[in-house]
């Protein structure tokens, strides 16, 4: 059974669970997260981070990528990204890849 | 079918998608296509709940849209910008093509929810639905144990079957919503129902008090809770919401008879919601066909769904605030509740254009509230079960009277 209460750290390899779908809404020209009976509109930064959540990359790798892209201090990026992912996880829009599943 | 869904609670909180998306619209586009649409793919159902939200005049199986017609509807909805569909009924899995329809929804990029009584589902069928891209399952419960639950559902062994399907849902790692419709004869089980939802590892619980139109209005004397019950219910829900934060989200729908202000039914008529009936009518609300004198367009007509939404007479009749009589017309809350529920206004006053009597400002409020209060204290507990024959009265034996 998938745990809903994950704790995000730099070693986490998060991904969107099957029931949360990140999608570009062509009609309204905005990114949305589709979830049970809800439609959320994540901001640009959240979209960029969520697109990196493929269940393969670790949070540390995601932070490296973003720090390089924005030429920003790694530590500051790491704090923001972990906080954002934890918030999404708490809302049920993020899960972790488990070793036991293929 | 849940009434919270019907209220189109698409989102809440700071990242509220609906608010964000609505705020992007210009005034001329106020009635942009809804984010989510309810598809009542059939009125057939093995359950006979006396508060069923389907109309009293049910669509027969022979009038239902075909597989190809529903697929065309799904494709059209996706093109229009609808993002989610709720497969509902009746019992949506009574249709043999439900997996095919869910697969088509996925193929055209729609997010799909299944709103089910669960009693027809096998593990294989549920698994096939998940493989077809189903993203969320909502199961209705009539109580927390079989004696009350099976009696309300009018079907033996229903409760046990529902528990079994709920467990399979979580085994397949699908999110689960437990929908509990509450009334005088099961409100005493509320605490146990909340615990049942926790034990089933549900993500969400809807505690939905019966809304009284259609079948429920016919059964009002047997279902109307007492004020004391409602006060206790609110206390139990508020306590559980705090205690279970992070474990189980609880949505609560109060009975509007005991409120001072009416509900913002459907988020306002023709404003952010429509549903499609088994026979293909495009409706502003799942009970709208109870309002006689309104003509509803069908997906079988020459009109597109977009045209029906924007231009049809039925959608425009009670849109916005221009149609309102007093006391709504000059009321400071007219854009808060949009005058309440049109179907309830019709059912209780005979005119869908009147203020919903649930509102304390309605001249009919006092009389209707008193009547409901008397019924809640009465001894009438026998159900009129929902069926295609116009309803069947519960026998003495079943009622235990």
Any overview of this molecule?
The complex is a heterodimer of chains A (102) and B (401). The radius of gyration of chain A is 14 Å and the shape is globular. Helices cover 37% and strands 18% of the residues of chain A. Chain A has helices at 44-52, 59-70, 74-90, and strands at residues 14-15, 21-25, 30-35, 38-40, 95-96. Chain A starts with 13 loop residues before the first strand and ends in a 6-residue tail after the last strand. Chain A has one domain: Arc Repressor Mutant, subunit A (Orthogonal Bundle). In chain A, strand 2 (21-25) and strand 3 (30-35) form a beta hairpin. Chain A is built from three helices and five strands. In chain A, the strands form two sheets. Chain A has a three-stranded antiparallel sheet with strand order 2-3-4, covered by helices on one side. In chain A, strands 1-5 form a two-stranded antiparallel sheet. Chain A is of the alpha+beta class. Chain B has 401 residues and is α/β, with parallel strands linked by helices. In chain B, the strands form two sheets. Chain B has a nine-stranded mixed sheet. A two-stranded antiparallel sheet of chain B has the order 10-11. In chain B, strand 10 (384-385) and strand 11 form a beta hairpin. The longest helix of chain B is centred in the middle third of the chain and has 17 residues, at 227-243. Chain B is globular, with a radius of gyration of 20 Å. Chain B starts with a helix and ends with a helix.
């Amino acid at each position: 059974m998938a745990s809903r209460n994950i704790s995000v750290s730099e070693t986490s390899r998060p991904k969107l669970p099957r029931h949360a779908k990140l999608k570009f809404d062509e009609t309204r020209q905005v990114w949305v997260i589709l979830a049970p009976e809800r439609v959320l509109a994540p901001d640009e930064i959240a979209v960029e981070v969520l697109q990196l959540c493929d269940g393969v990359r670790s949070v540390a790798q995601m932070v490296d990528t973003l720090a390089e892209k924005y030429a920003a201090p790694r530590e500051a990026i790491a704090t923001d990204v972990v906080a954002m992912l934890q918030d999404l996880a708490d809302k049920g829009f993020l899960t972790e890849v488990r070793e036991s599943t293929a | 079918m849940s009434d919270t869904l019907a209220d189109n609670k698409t989102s809440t909180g700071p990242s509220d998608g609906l608010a964000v998306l609505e705020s992007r619209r210009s005034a001329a586009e106020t009635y942009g296509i809804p984010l989510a649409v309810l598809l009542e793919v059939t009125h057939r159902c093995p359950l006979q709940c006396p508060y069923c939200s389907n109309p009293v005049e049910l669509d027969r199986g022979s009038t239902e849209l075909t597989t190809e017609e529903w697929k065309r509807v799904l494709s059209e909805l996706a093109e229009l910008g609808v993002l989610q569909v709720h497969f509902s009924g009746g019992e949506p899995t009574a249709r043999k093509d439900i997996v095919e329809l869910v697969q088509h929804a996925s193929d055209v990029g729609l997010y799909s929810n299944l709103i089910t009584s669960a009693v027809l589902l096998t593990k294989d069928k549920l698994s096939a639905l998940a493989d077809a891209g189903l993203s969320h399952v909502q199961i209705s419960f009539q109580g927390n144990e079989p004696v009350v639950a099976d009696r309300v559902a009018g079907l033996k062994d229903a409760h046990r079957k529902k528990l079994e399907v709920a467990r399979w849902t979580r085994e397949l790692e699908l999110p689960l919503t437990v929908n509990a419709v509450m009334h005088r004869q099961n409100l005493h089980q509320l605490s146990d129902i909340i615990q049942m939802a926790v034990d089933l590892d549900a993500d969400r619980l809807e505690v939905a008090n019966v809304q009284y139109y259609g079948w429920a209005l016919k059964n009002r004397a047997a279902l109307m809770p007492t004020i004391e019950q409602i006060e206790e219910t609110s206390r139990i829900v508020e306590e559980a919401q705090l205690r279970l934060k992070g474990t189980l989200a609880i949505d609560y729908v109060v009975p509007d008879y005991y409120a001072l202000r009416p509900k913002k039914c459907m988020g306002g008529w023709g404003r952010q919601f429509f549903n499609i009936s088994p026979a293909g009518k495009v409706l502003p609300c799942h009970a709208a066909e109870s309002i006689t004198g309104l003509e509803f367009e069908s997906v079988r007509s020459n009109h597109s769904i977009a045209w029906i939404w924007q231009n049809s007479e039925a959608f425009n009749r009670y849109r916005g605030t221009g149609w309102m009589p007093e006391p709504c017309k000059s009321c400071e809350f007219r854009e808060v509740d949009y005058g309440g529920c049109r179907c309830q206004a019709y059912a209780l006053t005979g005119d869908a254009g009147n203020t919903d009597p649930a509102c304390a400002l309605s001249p009919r409020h006092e009389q209707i509230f008193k009547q409901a209060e008397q019924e809640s204290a009465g001894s009438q507990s026998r159900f009129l079960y929902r069926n295609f024959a116009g309803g069947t009265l519960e026998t003495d034996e079943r009622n235990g009277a």
